[in-house]
Amino acid sequence: MSAETILELKDAKIYQEEALVLTDINIKIQKGEFVYLIGETGSGKSSLLKTLYSELPLKEGVGVVADIELNQIKRNKVPFLRRRLGIVFQDFQLMTDRSVEKNLEFVLKATGWKNKKEIKERIDDVLEMVGLHTKGFKMTHQLSGGEQQRVAIARSLLNEPDLILADEPTGNLDPETSQRILNLLIQISRTGTAVLMATHDYSLMDKFHQRTLKCEAGFVKDSAN
Question: Between 113 and 3, whose confidence is greater?
Fold first, then answer.
């Protein structure tokens, strides 16, 4: 795997429990690439993403994400993999009992940050990146859906990931807000962090043309081929 390759799957097979969901996957994603992941409900998109962050094991084939081999990963090494990744979900998954800053501080402390000044500076940095530098004091439930998703993206950026996996990040948002979130993710990819975004929103894809991986009939088809 070259220094520029962030994700590579070779002859990979994706399983959900014992059921084979996707087979013969051969894909590479390079540093700074933005790639859509599409397919009908049940086509294997979420199972593929879960395999990439080791929620599901890679039982067959070869998979390497941020220089970590998925098919040989031990459970105690999964946190190291996830520190190299940013994960953004459709439903934000923010803690509603605390402020934006406290949500982000929790993640940093959980991943080994200890210096209070460095923690504060990193939180300020990522909130600035997503355009929420004045909202850190707010409780998450006081924010709009679009703002909450921006916090989720800020959270995904905290440990300067090599790759962001975004699972339907615009699924709960109105069209205008969805466009802003997609724009933000594309801007992030241009700074060098690769982004793989699962989506059903074909109108967004029409406005922002990018390479596409499509899960269909048990295979992953690459628009680049």
Answer: 113
